[in-house]
Design goal:
heterodimer; A: 260 residues; B: 409 residues; six-stranded mixed sheet
Chain lengths: 260, 409
């Protein structure tokens, strides 16, 4: 494990090069360019506001629904983009994987870095919305980097597992969009955690994205810290998933070139 | 005591055979259920390498030869760490650079400049190292003018040149080269060969794979011959290449020519048939071997089952790897063949045979008067073995030694 991490550190420039490539290539030959990074969470916010707030009258803990959902959507989009692109990263770079050796997780980290740039772009509009809805940030905003770190580590663990599986079983590529959609609804993105029935909570909280997404809203919009017990449980699950995912990934990596 | 740069110690590599499907959960589940009952049979795996051991000394250039599927690529893949051995151990000392598929890491949407940095990083160079060598790389590839154009607009030749240029500047301790000396036009190839010579002078360790045996002999200090996943021979280039060629020759001659006659043609489709092809000298003695410069008679015995107008006899000759070296027809030389006789012999005299030492396959065809349709054909009808000047000496190259003389006028 330590050996792997040392080698990964040794390849940090390669990781950055892959990230740079992904970012530069993503919006080449598009008219809107980086605006696309905003379009996705923003249009989802508009749809959610119409469907959940106007039609279904879903509560949003007293927060205006547009900013309630946009807060969760930008961070959820970061997660979903990282997972959907990370899962196929090995196969998308099959020629490289077949021909040249480098620690394969560099490709996964590059995907996360380029998704993070989209997050940064999407937050520019978010700043405008905070001003529009007269929401003042409090000291609890300091929780954002903590939640972001936890979310990033979790995304890495998930794609370690899913990308290694995808090399061997292309079924993953087909099932993933469905899984992400279900996952979106199993996470309090469009609705508050307070709407989840108490009986379901023990299972519901096994999803580490629950306290993370809810935590962003508490920290940014409500001026409250995340629920400590929930966050601790999520942290434990994330650590288990990611360390197991990384170990399995490094083991599977040895035969990627043979089966990809 | 010379330092060992590469060591293979009893290395084996096993591949699982995938039968037609690409991995899917369903097939994995059924395979797993099947395995509950019995262990996977030996037919499910393929041994690309079996108990391979060898050492390569630091600063040596080693050529890797063998027929397709012998295990050359697997050795390179293990050396470059793209795949791991199933058993056994290997070690390499220093930075390993692979010139395996130049430009594998190129992204079509990015500019030449971006791709140089990206490819450099993939090959293990730091950003500052690429920046320092950037001008030399671009100059080597001869694409200064297009360096800020996305490479999807490059010609394939430009892409290959750029890929090679990056790879040639990695400065690794161990360099793996797979068939890449065949890229680009003649002047670019000469540049590549000079780069290779330069690396050799710097005492880099080089592993070279090529089907071009002359290149192998010229650039290698030792040659490793792999066959069916094992080391068949390892040592002096001339000796090993000679053994390798001999084994190919034996395999060719051991094949019964009758087996090779195309079964695609039925007897009815062959109004005139090749019965036998023999190689003999001017005295008509059948000979297993000929000296370079000696006349060779190729006797084609045929039988006629149905007269055809003006059949044309054609002889083509190929080298051991199947490359065509030349073909002659009776029509070119104005020879008319009378197909009213029930049988006969057509003799082609090569006077003299100009081929270099080696073995060459002789194919014989009988074609219609327009040289369009085949009346009969026989691939590998005979094997012509020539003794004489050899490419192993490096004093001659190619396949043919023309009648010539040098002068100092």
């Amino acid at each position: 494990m330590r050996e792997h991490l040392r080698e990964l550190w040794h390849h940090r420039e390669l990781t950055l090069s892959f990230a740079r490539r992904d970012i530069k290539a993503r919006y080449r030959q598009t008219a809107l360019g980086a605006v696309w990074a905003v379009v996705q969470p923003f249009s989802l916010m508009v749809v959610f506001t119409l469907v959940f707030s106007r039609f279904a009258k879903v509560s949003s803990d007293g927060i205006p629904y547009p900013i309630f959902s946009y807060t969760s959507l930008i961070f959820w989009t970061f997660f979903a983009t990282a997972v959907s692109q990370g899962t196929v990263a090995m196969v998308a770079n099959a020629t490289l994987v077949r021909k040249i050796y480098f620690p394969r997780e560099t490709l996964l980290i590059a995907v996360i870095l380029s998704a993070a740039l989209d997050l940064v772009i999407a937050t520019t509009i978010f700043g405008g919305m905070l001003v529009y809805y007269r929401t003042a940030l409090t000291l609890t905003a300091l929780w954002i980097p903590v939640l972001l770190a936890l979310q990033t580590v979790f995304a890495l663990g998930v794609i370690c597992l899913s990308s290694a599986l995808h090399v061997n079983y292309r079924d993953i590529g087909h099932g993933l969009p469905l899984l992400l959609q279900l996952w979106l609804f199993a996470t309090p993105v469009a609705y508050p955690l307070s709407l989840v029935p108490a009986a379901l909570l023990p299972f519901y909280l096994l999803n580490p994205m629950v306290p993370i997404i809810e935590g962003y809203r508490r920290a940014i919009l409500l001026g409250l810290p995340p629920d400590p017990a929930q966050l601790l449980l999520a942290t434990l699950i994330v650590l288990v998933v990611t360390s197991a995912g990384y170990v399995l990934f490094k083991r599977a990596e040895q035969t990627f070139a043979d089966v990809i | 005591m010379p330092k060992i740069a590469i060591r293979f110690d009893d290395v084996s590599k096993r591949y699982r055979l995938h039968r037609g499907w690409h991995g899917s959960l369903r097939s994995a589940a059924t395979a797993w259920l099947r395995r509950l009952g019995s262990r996977p049979g030996p037919e499910d795996v393929f041994w690309a390498l079996k108990n391979v051991s060898f050492d390569i000394e630091k600063g040596d250039a080693v050529g890797l030869i063998g027929t397709n599927g012998a295990g050359k690529s697997t050795i390179l893949k293990i050396l470059s760490r793209v795949t791991t051995p199933s058993s056994g151990r290997f070690s390499t000392r220093g930075r390993v650079g692979a010139l395996i598929e130049v430009g594998a890491g190129f992204h079509p949407e990015l500019t030449g400049r971006d791709n140089v940095f990206l490819n450099g990083a993939i090959m293990g160079m730091s950003r500052s190292e690429v920046a320092e060598k950037f001008d030399r790389i671009v100059g080597f590839a001869e694409i200064e003018k297009f360096i800020d154009t996305p490479i999807k607009y490059y010609s394939s030749g430009m892409q290959v040149r750029l890929g090679f240029a990056v790879a040639a500047h990695i400065d690794p301790d161990v360099l793996l080269i797979d068939e890449v000396l065949a890229v680009g036009d003649a002047s670019f190839q000469a540049k590549c060969l000079n780069k290779l010579a330069e690396l050799k002078e710097q005492a880099r360790t080089i592993v070279l794979v090529s089907h071009n045996l002359a290149n192998i002999v010229e650039h290698s200090k030792k040659v490793l011959w792999v066959q069916a996943g094992t080391v068949a021979a390892y040592g002096d280039p001339d000796t090993v290449v000679d053994q390798y060629l001999k084994s190919i020759r034996e395999r060719l001659t051991s094949e019964n020519p009758a087996d090779v006659v195309s079964r695609a043609m039925t007897d009815a489709e062959r109004p005139i048939r090749i019965e036998q092809v023999t190689l003999c000298d001017r005295q008509g003695r059948v000979r297993p071997e000929f000296q370079h410069g000696e006349p060779v008679c190729i006797d084609i015995a045929y039988s006629v089952h149905e007269p055809v107008p003006d059949p044309v006899f054609e002889v083509t000759i190929q080298d051991a790897h199947g490359h065509a070296l030349g073909g002659l027809t009776t029509r070119f030389d104005g020879l008319k063949i009378d197909s009213t006789q029930s049988q006969g012999i057509v003799r082609l005299i090569l006077q003299p045979v100009l081929f270099l030492k080696g073995h060459y396959t002789v194919n014989v065809h009988i074609r219609d008067h327009q040289i369009q349709r085949y009346h009969d054909f026989r691939k590998r009808a005979a094997v012509l073995v020539v003794e004489g000047p050899s490419v192993a000496s490096r004093e001659v190259s190619g396949h043919v030694n023309y009648p010539h003389q040098w002068e100092l006028p």
